[in-house]
Amino acid sequence: MTLVAASPGYALRNHTDYRYNLLMSKQTNSFNPAQWREQFPALQQEVNGQTAVYLDGPGGTQVPQGVISAMSSYLTQGGSNSGGPFLTSRRSDAIVEAARAAVADLLNAQPREIAFGQNMTSLTFSLSRALARRWQPGDEIIVTNLDHDANISPWLLAAEERGVTVRWLDFDPTDCTLRLDQLPDLLNEKTRLLALTAASNAVGTIPNISQATQLAHAAGALVYVDAVHYAPHGPLDVQAIGCDFLACSAYKWFGPHTGVLYGKYELLEALTAYKLRPAPTHTPGKWETGTQSFESLAGVTAAVDYLAQLGEGNDRRSQLRSAMQRIKQYEQQVSQRFLEGITAVSGLKLYGISDIERLDERTPTFAVSLDNYTPQQVAARLGEQGIFVWSGHYYAIAVMERLGLLDQGGLVRIGFVHYNTLDEVDRVLDALDDLA
Ligand SMILES: Cc1ncc(COP(=O)(O)O)c(C=O)c1O
């Protein structure tokens, strides 16, 4: 089936790609992914003679050479546990310190407000237990059905243990936007916590978390933000958001498998952490259970430095702000191309925001279904052509339940990040069109 051009931009795609890329790089502040792709060895991967197309970023991104080198260098030079009076141990201490400073720059926080852990899920479980110690029977918390289960189940379990009522903030199934207009009705003087996502890992929606935080704070509730999906797609600033806690995972922003927890220092310090008796008594150390993965933390700093060099500025924080703004702008070009392109694919249905005037409200993560195929069949067929996409619920089970798709195999998720090119958008569009 031939793909019908849906817009002038789309019409350009088959014959003048190099000119199109040049035009795009000018329009997007000289941001051209070809310049950065070279730093990612995995992007050279071939499947059946074709270069692989990694559209599985929401499940985990590839890493640049700088991250690989930093990790390997830690292991090559000799490592040790932290806190010892000798070279290798001091090196580990320095690596932890550098990673805290790097992530603090990424989030606009203080290094002492950053704790590391195995992943976002385990950090959230840990913090939920600490917060729940303060809850009383009859208290209330709010979770949303737009969230990944890692920002739901820990709170449900803690609430159950403490006799706390759980209220659910809904999303509008027609465009998958969070019903923030309903939040005031859910909040009251008994609300202890609002847990919500900075972006949906299933349908890409970016809710207005600053507004939600203001409403929750006005009612006296704390706010826990899951920024795992949002983090690789745009600037983050915990001061501007005003949230009390925010968690993310470095493997979603071009780093290794390490979780990050931000919390306002006084709050983290006041809470009782579930920790071993000889472990540090102060923040952030008291939140870091057991021995950290020092090689991963070396990679975390390198991932932040990779991002920083995509931007401009006199210090790393400014470079990161500029880089993430550039990434956001470039990804909006990618989203536009994809959204215009899918209008020509028959039998394809998109769940989420499709309006190209509203790209600020979504990441380039698209959940779709294709008539006559299960999501698993689509992912498998694309996989044979070297196009990596996920199918199913991706742990966003509340989203799939609300859309009535949990028992239907969920959806196909096509997720772009800044290293994906416009040619790759076209490749997946062509592959979908061939199936349709
Ligand atoms: C939005 C979102 N939240 C939380 C998680 C869980 O993160 P982790 O694997 O670091 O526990 C994921 C993982 O896919 C996610 O996409």
- Low-confidence segments, given as residue ranges, are 1-28
Largest sheet: 7 strands, mixed
Question: How many beta-strand elements?
Answer: 17
**Whole-number mean pLDDT:** 93
| CATH domain class of the largest domain | Alpha Beta
The dominant shape is globular
Strand content: 15-25%
- State the share of residues found in helices, binned by percent: 25-40%
Q: Kindly, what is the distance between the CA atoms of the first and last residues, rounded to a whole number of angstroms?
A: 8 Å
CATH superfamily of the largest domain, by name, is Type I PLP-dependent aspartate aminotransferase-like (Major domain)
Describe the structure concisely for a colleague.
The chain is α/β, with parallel strands linked by helices and 436 residues long. Helices cover 40% and strands 15% of the residues.
